[in-house]
Design brief:
With 202 residues, the chain is an all-alpha fold. The protein has a domain of 94 residues. Helices cover 68% and strands 3% of the residues. The protein has a two-stranded antiparallel sheet. Strand 1 and strand 2 form a beta hairpin. The longest helix is centred in the first third of the chain and has 66 residues. It is elongated. The relative contact order is 0.06.
Length: 202
Amino acid sequence: MNNELEALKVEASEMALFAKGLADGVTDAEGEREAVLFLGKIKGSIKQAKVHFDFLTKPLKEHIKTIKAEFDAIAEPLEEAERIVGAGIIKWRNGQEFKQKEEKRLALEAYAKEAVRQNDIDKLQVIASEHENIAHEAPKVVKTEGAKMHMRESWQFEIIDIALVPKEFLLINEPAIRAALKEGTEIAGVKSWKVMKPVIVQ
């Protein structure tokens, strides 16, 4: 197998070197026939390489698929458990009780910054005592023996009227455009033209 692959590599390199001269020689019908013959050889070499690739990788792919199924059986329930507990944390932090305590903590932190600017040590000591209690009730960061958690803000969205969405936020459906052009449909705002490409069939 290794010898066959090495032979294919050598052949591929030689074909790449030969291609430029052959392309320049396509100046008449005979030159075109020679080019088509050469492209047929390239097609055959590509197929040969793919056969070798599939032969070598198929057992690996099947083995990986089996291993992945074993790990999925472990990961999926764990991920579901993570989602459920995470939802519980979000529900608690979005609740009125937590929000009130969080507002108090943030206010104390703002007072503390002001006390620092004023170099008011007595005020800082009073705030520190209150802050320690409320920070335990509504912490910014939760630290445990095995994990640490903080909240990260992210944006979610839902399209409610696509006609109002600015065009820079819309994606072009290229496959649909090509299919419509193939059927002869004219599309406003789209300039189209045909490009011929040689197709080699063995």
